Amino acid sequence: MSGATEYAEVWSAALPYLRARKNDVHVPIAYRFAEKLLEAHPEANREVVLVGVLMHDLGWAVVDQEAIYRDGFGDNALQSDVKRRHELEGAVLARELLPPLGFDAGTVDHIARIIDGHDTRAEAISLEDQLVKDADKIWRFSVTGVSVVSDWFKLTPAHYADRLETKVLEKLFTDEARRLAREALAQSRDLLKLDVLR
Q: Check: CATH 1.10.3210.10 for 8-191?
């Protein structure tokens, strides 16, 4: 039997916004990868990283749901208005939801600044931002991530796994993230039989 969920009050506040774009699946998996990254980076602010990952995609719930899949994926996805809009809306939501839960202004500001640019900003503003960005990307390498996101890009799981290896792996910031991503991708390739199911 496991103990109480860490940041349960934040999870509860986020819940209405986690039903968009499979974020009720994506965010818990990314959160677990963030916990693993924090084990390798104990110098990082744990609260900023975990709450940042938990809230980073809430903005998807308040943007045009059809535009998410029409404009949010593909070769020019990072330049799409919908991608940027979800970051801006997510930062607003973090600034609204966190203070009533007892988070101080400095922590809220750091989390909101991470959310505002977690997909479209190539550089990181802090170690915590690196870890949030990495956890957000590593989930894609998991069996669930490959299965879900390959549909969003209209690719087979095998072709999406190849894309992860050639285009996403190099964008990870930390050595631990690259190790976790490679490990997850190897497991995904094995479990999904991607050597034959091309």
A: yes
